[in-house]
Amino acid sequence: MPVICAANPKGGAGKSTTLLTIATCLAQSGASVMIIDADPNRPITDWRSGPTALQLKVRSDATEANIRDLINETASQAQFVFIDLEGTASRLTSRAIIRSDLTLIPLAGSALDAQQAARAVGLVRESEADIGRKLNFALCFNRTSPPPFVRKIEREISQQMRESGLPVLSTHLHRREAYNAMFMERLSLHELSQTAINGVPAAIENAMQLTSEVLELLQTLSDERAA
Predict the structure, then answer these.
(1) How far is residue 206 from each of residues 23, 129, 179, 211, 226, measured CA to CA in Å?
(2) Does domain 3-226 have CATH number 3.40.50.300?
């Protein structure tokens, strides 16, 4: 079953938001989903302790010593496994990246985030060198302006990354109140649709588009491995 992690040495890059958004969309559609919360702040563990009725399991017992076995165990139990990694480069992070089918590198549309994302790409490249095989990753923008209000710097950073040959997801998670509200209310986006939070339908549509693109990428990578 696919294992997807989110890595970026910059704290606050949107790792937890990106993973939780995709994971809850999949769980909402009926998939069995497990999240390994390896962030020391445990944001997803805290979210799961809330009133959400979504059937989504969270493990928060990951350590440098057990991360490999934990990934293998959860991958045998769920259709999708997500790993929310700490905001630093570490052996736990490297081991999770090596074991993952896809590493998402979340970033906002700023020069600082682009620099830190480059460090995350470097970590993936180092892990590739350690094991002698290619690892799959993609940069995933979040907190960007929705069309038609896309900022110039956001367009330029995305274009520069593509011109450098880096894989960049076309779908961005836009800057919307609903993504923050997920953590505040401890609900999924679909559950928020029953509340008074602004912009929830647009956030759900945006989240489903991102989830679909990630699924398509995973299918492409699976086909390439089978060829």
Answers:
(1) 14, 35, 11, 9, 31
(2) yes
